[in-house]
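Hey forum,

I'm writing up a methods section and want to include a predicted complex as supplementary material. The small molecule is calcium ion. I've pasted the protein sequence and the SMILES. Can someone with a working setup run it? I'll credit the forum in the acknowledgements.
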Amino acid sequence: MSKGQVTMVHGLLIALLLSCLTVSTVVTEDNDVIHEMRSTMVVSQLMLAEQTAVLQELLNASRSTLRFFAEESSCPYPYKKVLDECFYVCGKKVTFDQARQHCQGMAGDLAHPKHLHALLSLLFEYEQIIGGNVWMGATDSHQENTWLWPDGSPVLKWGRGEPSRLNSASVKEDCLELRLETNMLLNDVICTKKMPFVCQHP
Ligand SMILES: [Ca+2]
Ligand SMILES: [Ca+2]
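Reply by user p_vandermeer:
Happy to help. Structure tokens for the complex are below, copy them as they are.
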């Protein structure tokens, strides 16, 4: 082999080596890009999972808020729901007849609650406005000592020592008040007394 041929072979070998090195560098760069893309995908998946969890929480919160408003609004305004009944508390002091007239004007009647203590819980929120006692719907004005609620059912539970059944010419206790003391509750009083009242929507 001549010197010129040897030089040419060397040249070819160097070119081949350089070309291999270039291919190796390109493969390494491709691997880096793929690795980077994989990392980006993993991060994106994690962020997506996190965002899905946050959206799910927001959805659940919206559902319970809607449920809350649906339950709240099941009584017509301005009545408020207490267990399964609707009440409106008015702080204006009026006689029994005036109170009843007002409630009937609100498509209701004076209160005849199934759950007195539950109603008390609502009244405690209005304690500053209503003071101590409010009108309830029962009366014995049609027949002395026969106490009936507006729906015709009898009054069964009284406060301690009540009804006092005062029935003189000057003092007739024919109307019903609810006291805010839990052991006193229902008491018969004269109907011309003036006090706040509670209406109930049927
Ligand atoms: Ca009476
Ligand atoms: Ca009494």
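Some notes you might quote in the supplement: The first strand starts at residue 80 and ends at 82. The mean pLDDT is 84.
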